Amino acid sequence: VQLVESGGGLVQAGGSLTLSCAVSGLGSDDWAVGWYRQAPGKEREGVSCLRTADGSTSYADSVKGRFTISMDNAKNTLYLRMNSLKPEDTAVYYCAVSLVCERLGSDYWGQGTQVTVSS
Questions:
Q1: For residue 102, which phi and psi values (nearest 5 degrees)?
Q2: Going along the chain, which residue ranges are E strands?
Q3: Which pLDDT tens digits describe the chain residue by residue (119 residues)?
């Protein structure tokens, strides 16, 4: 499994960004694909997860209503649309794959992309 993220950057509070993750090597099995983030001095936080079998999604309470996860199966690309960004969303965002959402970050993950939200 290979994961390559892109789309991070610097944005003002209230702005939007879309992260992309090119995914390869998954096959047709049911996987949990998603995003987690790591901010300096803070614990790793699972942001959002999507099950490839049925497209079901889940979100951390901190991003619910602002972030949207989606996957384009034709392009093998996972997305995270982030709206109404807050300074506390500043972190390195990692695309990840596992067998279950609770294990995102434990099995396969990308190199990470920095998101910085200025106040």
A1: -65, -20
A2: 2-6, 9-12, 17-24, 32-38, 45-51, 57-59, 67-72, 77-82, 91-98, 108-109, 113-118
A3: 999 999 999 999 999 999 999 999 987 789 999 999 999 999 999 999 999 999 999 999 999 999 999 999 999 999 999 999 999 999 999 999 999 999 998 999 999 999 999 99
